[in-house]
């Protein structure tokens, strides 16, 4: 049976259907009450959600975490790894740490690691960073109004003059992925090195510090003494997150800003325990040494009685 064409009589009957016995005003009042109640419930739920940090490390032995573990394992099928060491989940992305053992005879401590961000909705895998000797540290605040972030140290190689780097892992709300802070050229913020140039006295001072507003920053000071060959060089850097834009900053400090940071680094009063180095160096001892400035003499001589005689014979 074919459908009947639309006609004005049907539309007219729909328009003039019998109205409800409930007064129009009562329907408006009830509708407003329901809307108000829904808004209150949603606001309370949103406030509770904002106060909770949804990050959680997966337990490889827990049955309730097996779906995430299987999902991540399948997503990493195309990557090179021999073990998954850590899986941390926040919202729709997993922070994953894998290791790769070159051969069955390789020592366990020499395994290189890789950090990935794995989408829990699309299986998309995003490389974050790689290195060796990953050391997890305390959680810290870096961005205004954001949750705490796990921090870490790592090296760039095992059997070499290794460089050590500091970073923090954070969830990027706009991209729905995990990322490492202060990345440049595939590495995070450098804090120390074992590769000292010959003939140069190199002093390294660094500290991860907590500011008065609760946000953290990393500051480094590298001083190169070339002896009589040429004047010394020093480089003072600050790594933090801009409180206005929320973007990461890597700033080289100069002038008074550099001098103030040198004092702060050597005092290290607000440094995180275990995340500082060089405060006992001769460079810091010299920096903290009180400096006495010679002031101009303003006291008049003892035989000055405040009188003067005109020039010429008496």
What attributes does this structure have?
five-stranded antiparallel beta sheet; disordered N terminus; 314 residues; single chain; 21% helix; alpha+beta; nine-stranded antiparallel beta sheet; 2 domains
Describe the fold and architecture.
The chain has helices spanning 8-15, 24-51, 66-75, 255-267, 282-288, and strands spanning 56-57, 83-90, 93-99, 112-119, 125-140, 149-155, 163-172, 177-180, 189-193, 201-210, 216-225, 233-241, 248-253, 271-277. With 314 residues, it is α+β, with helices and mostly antiparallel strands. The protein folds into 2 domains: 52-194, no CATH class; 196-289, no CATH class. Strands 1, 2, 3, 4, 5, 6, 7, 8 and 9 form a 9-stranded antiparallel beta sheet that branches. A 5-stranded antiparallel beta sheet has the order 13-12-11-10-14, with helices on one face. Helix 4 crosses helix 5 (282-288). Residues 1-22, 25-29 and 39-52 have low confidence and may be disordered.
Question: Total helix count?
Answer: 5
Our Rg estimate from Cα atoms comes to: 33 Å
The helicity comes to 10-25%
Global structural class: alpha+beta
User: How many discrete domains?
Assistant: 2
Instruction: Show unreliable segments.
Output: 1-22, 25-29, 39-52
Largest sheet: 9 strands, antiparallel
